Amino acid sequence: MSRSGSVLEVLRMDPAAAGGTVTVNGWVRTRRDSKAGVSFIELNDGSCLRNLQIVAEHGHPGFQDLLAEVTNGCSLSIEGEVVASPGKGQAVEVHATRIQLLGAADPGTYPLQKKRHSFEFLREIAHLRPRTSTIGAAARVRSRISFAIHELLEARGFLYVHTPIITASDCEGAGNVFRVTTLDPGQESAAMPSDDFFGRPAYLTVSGQLQAEIYALALGKVYTFGPTFRAENSNTSRHLAEFWMVEPEMAFCDLQGDLELAEVLVKHCIQAVLDRCGEEVDFFERFMEPGLRTHLERTVRESFEVISYTDAVDLLTKSGEVFSFPVVWGGDLQAEHERYLTEKVFRKPVAILDFPRSLKPFYMRVNDDDRTVAAMDILVPRIGEIIGGSQREERRDVLLEQMRLRSIPLEEYRWYVELREWGSVPHAGFGLGLERMVQFCTGIANIREAIPFPRTPGHAEL
Asked: How far is 88 from 6, CA to CA, in rounded Å?
């Protein structure tokens, strides 16, 4: 009896028990012909990294003319018998008894030929790059990490809250926001905010945190997971204009509880990739990051290093290392500083706590020293910061002072202050960058390959 199956399902069949017919669908990666009148077609449907070998004899009725049209990139539906494979690299193969050409691909114009293409070239053909081994593998790892995030947080009693993509609040207060307007460009300067679609200035969200706090202070533990947008003109391998973040928010929680959840979540995501994306990890270890599996396993096994910002600055200034950016207390830690700490000093993820008050946004809780806030950045080797979080300022008077120091308009954040007036409690949360998590689990160097459709300054394909 014939049955349908994905390429992955067929490849997992026991060769000792092979037999029966199966129907598989997919795209042709390569095709080669033997002098004996047999075509060997490598078929892939995206369900896994490996291809399924299809053996088609030219002498089979109707195959001769049809096989002439089978080229790289075309789509096929194939019915055949699953048999043990005598060749290397696969346990089973399919001997075709029926081939249907679903969609042809002109070999003269199809851009994905049997050779390695640069990532820069693949970004120019964004509609085809998921068909490549690297981008397909990255997509499967990204999917597994996303599922693992939902899995862990749901198991720990978090509610998934959908916060708005269009917001009136600039969570970070840095002004790097995309304005959302229906006004004609020539009318914007003369128009009143009330003339716009929402009757007030509106922006693409830079974070769902502030809205998540509303629900955390009513439902206890929530998280938001979706796209965020930063209008920062940083055209580097580490930055995107649109990226995804998961942001858990917890009532009755301090910085220590925040840090504990963050470490558990990172390790859970890595373990999920190791358990379910083993072939992809091996692939990335071969082509992207030698020793990747060992690095990931060690990260799951060992505790993160925890130090204060002050101690981190002290380590850096006494290191004797020559940095491009000077290290001073009160200054931002640059990527080179973060990598030195994670790759040379501790050789594992590092959680840095208690940053200078002046460096962080207004909503972070001020420590008793009045100089620092209860903030944390989790850094990992190769990537740098993967998580940023804090205990939130639950004290009304301190929050108001923070807003005054940063010229945050009270009238626009009155609702946020009221959360501190009516039943305020200690609470904390963080944001984990999904693309950087994908980078860490794959060894992908450029963040543009960790997201399906990268948005960067000057580039918004499709």
From this structure: 21
